[in-house]
Amino acid sequence: MSIESLFAERNAGVEWSGIRIMFAMADQIDGIVNLGIGQPDFDTPVHIRDAAKKGLDQGYTRYPPAAGFQDLRDAVAEKLARENKIKADPESEIFIAVGAMQGIFNVMLHLVNPGDEVMVVDPGYDYYSQIRLFGGVPVRIPAREENKFKLDPADVKAAITPKTKAIILNTPSNPTGAVFDRDILEQVAGLCREHEIVVISDEPYEHILFDGNEHVSMGSLEGMKDLTVSIYTLSKSYAMTGWRVGYVAGHRAIISEMEKLMEHMVSGVTAVAQRAALAAITGSQDCVEQMVQRYARRRELVYEGLNSIPGISCIKPESTFYAFPNISSLGMSSWDFAKYMAREHKVAVVPGSIFGENGEGYVRISFATSSENLEKALKRLARGVAGL
């Protein structure tokens, strides 16, 4: 008998992250330039780190409340009302989570039954394992390059069945950098209200926008507050990926279930990390603006560099710190191209197929690294493509 034979059947629905597979490969290659990392390359701003140090001295080293400290939930409520136009009761409609990922996991657990269909954007972030873990069925909604990778509400309408339980929306979008316009979201909202479909709105890149693009939170639209679970993280905006703090806004019944489960999972988000989060949300936002300005300059470098390589084309991302270039004319799968570039030319990119069937023919490139690294990587990409 093998220990694997004793595993729960639901484990089969969970796959290793393709991004992690690429990371592992890159880690074994000396001198590689890694453009696969989806995290800011900046240090957490000083005032946020100082708040954590102060929190330690103040004794924030014990069990925190399962839903998060009340002053942090109050601050989140003020931020949501001010920036996202979402009114949420800080006592009953806001939950402090271990990053956005735990928020998404918990929502899936509470909403998805075996056989329920959950619509996901393709290409888009990999939510498939979380859906399948609870017996759900992912339904792919295409996002096309000719539409700047924006969602077409007609495709959403065509995919709705009596089994449709939810739709996951990630805007600004990983990996494409697309921003779903207000009109698109209004049309999708109308479909969700008509068919009582829950929107799981994953909004980690809400502040990383370029060219005057506007981020619209689905939960702010008319009639959508109770049908939307809005999920945020401090990881991207404040360079806090390792602090593991996010927050969720939703109907009080869902938040109550999340709080109840938290006691059985991890008790609560690390107390001192919550003090850092409070400083991030309530303090000066200049640090966010400065990081976005740096990303904007790097975006231009990557956009021009990629489009100067024969055989590669790339639309300009509207948000995030990702570019999603088209490599389909090179005659290689996205995995083969990524392996070739890593092993032969020491530059790591993420295969587009990781992000769905419609991601084949593309790769994701992160420009959350220095301009020096980006210039070096672009030269290696050009050399690698020329050698095909």
Give a brief outline of the structure:
The chain is of the alpha/beta class and 388 residues long. Helix content is 39%, strand content 13%.
What is the ordering of alpha helices and beta strands? HEHHEHEHEHEHEEEHHHEHEEEH
**N-to-C span:** 48 Å
* CATH architectural category of the largest domain: 3-Layer(aba) Sandwich
Mean pLDDT: 95
The CATH homologous superfamily of the largest domain is termed Type I PLP-dependent aspartate aminotransferase-like (Major domain)
| Spatial arrangement of strands, main beta sheet | 2-8-7-6-5-3-4
Can you tell me the number of structural domains?
2
Helix content: 25-40%
Note poorly predicted spans: none
The number of helical runs is 12
What do you see in this structure?
It is a single chain. The chain is α/β, with parallel strands linked by helices. The protein has 12 helices and 12 strands. It folds into 2 domains: 3-44 and 286-386, Aspartate Aminotransferase, domain 1, CATH 3.90.1150.10; 46-282, 3-Layer(aba) Sandwich (Aspartate Aminotransferase, domain 2). It has helices at residues 18-27, 46-57, 70-84, 99-111, 128-133, 153-159, 182-195, 252-265, 271-282, 286-307, 334-345, 371-386; strands at residues 33-34, 94-97, 117-122, 137-142, 164-170, 198-202, 228-233, 246-249, 322-323, 347-348, 350-351, 363-366. Helix 5 (128-133) links the parallel strand 3 (117-122) and strand 4 (137-142). The longest helix has 22 residues, at 286-307. It starts with 17 loop residues before the first helix and ends with a helix.
